[in-house]
Amino acid sequence: MHDHFQSIDLGEGPRVAERILILDDEERISSLCAKMLTRSGYDVLAPAYGSEAIEIALAGDYDLLLTDYNMPDKNGIAIFQEVQKAGHDVTAVLVTANATAEVLTHALEAGVSSFIPKPFTAEELRRGVDLALGKARIQKENARLRGLVALLELRLKLACDANQEGLFEAMMEVASRKLMADRTSILVRTQEGNRMRLAASRGLPAELPKDGLTDVSGTISGYVLENGRSVLINGEVVSPDLVSLLRFSSLSSGVCVPIRDKSGVVGVLSAGRQQPREGFKESDLKFLEDFANHLFAGHDANSCREELQENCLRAVGTIMAEIESREPCLKGHSAGVADCAVRLARECGLGAAAVEELRMAALIHDVGRLGVSACHGQKKPDWTVADMFRMKNHVQYSEKILKASTLPDTIIRTVKHHHEWYSGAGYPDGLAGERIPLEARILRVADTADAISSDRSYRSMYSPNEFLGEMNRGRGTQFDPAILDAALRLHERKSLLHHAHPYYQTA
Question: Are 402 and 411 in contact (CB under 8 A)?
Answer without folding.
Answer: yes
